Each structure stands twice: as C-alpha cells, then as structure tokens.
Amino acid sequence: MDSKPTPLIAGNWKMHCSLSEAKALVDGLKAGVAGLKDRQVLVGPPFTALETVARTIAGSAILLAGQDLHWEPKGAFTGAVSAPMLRDVGCTHVIIGHSERRQFFGETDETVNKKIAAAQTAGLVPIVCVGETLEQREKNQTMTVIEQQLRRGLLGQKGDAIAALVIAYEPVWAIGTGKVATPEQAQEVHATIRRILGELGAKEAAAACRILYGGSVKPDNIDELMRQTDIDGALVGGASLQVESFVRIAKFIV
Ligand code: PEP
C-alpha cells in the first residue's frame, strides 16, 4: 500500500525578485509545471510581490505562501504582516521558523508556536522549519535539537491539525552552502520527525503530515532525495529562482 502523502515542492524566494522578475519567473513556472498532477508546487515570494504573483498564478495549480507572519491579526507592529493579510492577498500557506528568521530576526520556538496557531486560525497551512546547525550536528545533538524544536513549536497541536501541517527539515549547514545532506542523513531525521509527530498526535496524523527536505536541493539531487521513505517534498531556496531548475525539481522522478 502506498500511503505517502501528495508531494509538495515549495520555492522560498527569500529577499529576491522585483515585480517584473517575479512575474517573469512565475510565468515560466506556470508553463513549465502545467499538467503536473501527482504533486503540488508552491512559491513563496517576498511580501511586495505577493499580489503580482497571486494574479499571475490565478487559474493555475501553483500555490502561494508568505515567508513569515506576525501572530496578531492586526495592530501596532511596524513592518509586520498578519495571517488574515496573507489570506487576503491569496496565500494558502506560510513559512514559519525558517532558520534565517531564527538566526537574524530572533525567532524562537515560542514565537513559532504562536505563529502556527495564528496561521491555522486564518486558514493558512503552516510550513514549519526545523534544523540543526553544523556545530550541533558535530556534537551529535541533531535529534535532540529537532525534538526540542518540534515539541516546543508544536505545543498544543493535536491529531488533525498535525496531519494538515507541513514540516520542513532544513539542516542549517546545508542551506545556501551547496552541501546537501545525504539522502540517508535526511531520511534518518525525517523518520525521527515522523515518530515525534506520532507521539504528539497519532500515527495516522504523522503519516499524513508532509515532511519536506530543504538545503541545497538541486535538479541533480532531488530524485534520490524523493526516493526516501519519509521525504514528501522539498523546500528549495536558490534553485527556485530559475525557471529551468525549479521546473526540473518539480518534475522529480522516483
Ligand atoms: C531555504 O531557503 O529554505 C533553502 C533550503 O535554501 P537553499 O535551497 O538555497 O539551500
């Protein structure tokens, strides 16, 4: 029985793309992934390009994500964007707890937890990022770090809510470095994540939850990564900024 959830290939554009660049990129993607049926494709442009991208993908199957959100629905939070605002512009998903947010913007497991709840209240699917640093991996702390990020970040999350989440395992040492985790290293952590999700919710919820791998995913490593039992997709940074590479990643072959 093949019980794998529908794969999700997500592009995190980070702080890249003017409006014209965003439009050109997504026009190319639309054409490149048209007709792909057994997987989902998502883009996460910067806030400024969300509306342009939303208009451009209208009528296609491409999904739209914000790269972050504030946990309050509105208020005096200069520079922040809320879950209802992301919904309003056409997002279905939102990336939460990316390691760059944790590293440069003071994101913690506690803020991740509040952001997940805010996203769910507004009807957005959270893509929750976890991952260890190189130092933590070298000290054999990978599984402890991942477990803590999950248990704290997902505090209060139960069965169905866990099934609907997307988790992205992104080893910090592999993001933007060209150093990809081996499929075996990634699979080992993904299996641990699924076990922990099962303990937090239920086995069925854990099986339904999509666990993406992120960290230097490229056209030449996606196929092998996607062959791993517990890898249900990818969160792609650099290679999502070019039509050709992102389309090839979306067209992974297992
Ligand atoms: C990311 O931004 O989440 C990421 C994985 O980046 P890259 O693919 O460039 O390593």
What does this entry look like structurally?
This protein has 254 residues and is α/β, with parallel strands linked by helices. It has a single domain, classed as TIM Barrel. The protein is built from twelve helices and eight strands. It has an eight-stranded parallel β-barrel with strand order 1-2-3-4-5-6-7-8, surrounded by five helices. Helix 2 links the parallel strand 2 and strand 3 (63-66). The model has no long low-confidence stretch (mean pLDDT 96). Bound molecules: phosphoenolpyruvate (PEP). Residues 12, 14, 170, 175-176, 214-217, 235-239 line the site of phosphoenolpyruvate.
List the helices and strands and how they pair.
Layout: E1 8-12, H1 19-33, E2 40-44, H2 50-57, E3 63-66, H3 83-89, E4 93-96, H4 99-104, H5 109-121, E5 125-130, H6 134-138, H7 142-153, H8 159-164, E6 166-169, H9 183-200, H10 203-208, E7 210-214, H11 222-226, E8 233-236, H12 243-250
Parallel strand pairs: 1-2, 1-8, 2-3, 3-4, 4-5, 5-6, 6-7, 7-8
Helix pairs in contact: 1-2, 1-12, 5-7, 7-9
